[in-house]
Structure prediction request, 419 residues.
Amino acid sequence: MLQPSKQMTASFHAELYKLIPEDHPLRKINEIVDFTFIHDLVRSSYCEHYGRPANEPELLFRLLFLQVLYNLSDERIIQETQVNLAYKWFLGVNPEDNLPDPSQLSRFRNHRLGAGAVDEVLISVVRQCIEKGLVKSKTIIMDSTHTLAASQKQKPLEVLRDAAKRLFRVVVKKHPKLEKKLPKLPGLRKEDQEDAEKIMLQYLANLGETVELLLPDHEGSISEKVRIAKAIVEDERLLANKGIMSAIDPDARFGWKSNTKSFFGYKEHIAMTEEEIITAVEVTEGSSDDGKQFKELLNQTLDAGIEVHEVIADTAYSGKDNLEEMKSKQIQPVVPLNPIVHNGGLRQEGFEYNKDADFVICPAGQHSIRKAVQGSKQSGNSRSLVFYFDTEKCKACPLKEGCFKPGAKSKTYSIRIVA
Ligand code: SF4
Prediction:
């Protein structure tokens, strides 16, 4: 049940807040951003008539804000806030007041706000920045940065075993009586090693189905583990070591910063003003193409009320579609052209060009191992870039049908360069 916003009654101890310097960053943020919009944003996620009164959503949101700003865990932000005057002042509570339990933060983040609320929060904050005259520039800068996954990359067998153990554990913890009804983790003998992945895949599928049968109305952490188990079982690229690579963070993927440096995690695609106010954010798996996020970032920025006259971005955004989109909106692109990206990238479905690493990634997740230019400058339009794949990997590839002819000496992918 959500109660109307409370007005705090300042206690005698609130005098201590005078010790917080006038130029403290939290004072400045508090002056500029009005967080009361959070109340309306989460209203629909609360039952109107039943349940205990909810902890003030704005207070929980401000705690999440501090958590992100100072990079602290749920437990640490509560511990730190308990003894930090500036944090407590920012929350709008009295120095002697108690704070919510850390578990309330994750509930609020996942069940009340949810991933979808990020855009709305961003739009509300950007609109306030515009109203307060903080956005003067009509130029938007787009780029991406990477975030590491919450776990290490695992081999397919580890992914399967880990997912199975996690699902088994969470079900038994919540329903101890079901332990005997669940299939037991198979002990793999030496002679099973060759088929270990298939045995474990079969076990995970069987375990998932049994849980759904025994607990048709499962929810919360059980649903989450069932969802992950299903995604792993249905992932065609898992055993080729190119699909899901972590049972903890199944959406994380390898991305490339250059052709020798990779990372395991996600990409954050960002649009911001010259005043460094972020106007749009899209999070994708690490392997995704920056240029494909362009329209979404631009539309989010425009929806927030920013007037855009110019976009500054790198070659990844130089695709024809993006340039045409800018032209149609009378936006000046400041984007260096990359001939491959500009000409529409790759034509065959599933192949992607990675401009940071300058290689092509195929549908099986393999990347080309070298490239060559075919044709001469004199021949003008007929020049092509040819990317070569490792034929040993193609021979063993589960997706080779229609892609690699048995006995072929090479597997290439050509892209015409239009001068
Ligand atoms: S056959 Fe080779 S190029 Fe084609 S999808 Fe498989 S690994 Fe990639």
Remarks:
- The chain has 14 helices and eleven strands.
- The two ends are 64 Å apart (CA to CA).
- The chain has a mean pLDDT of 86.
- The first strand starts at residue 139 and ends at 148.
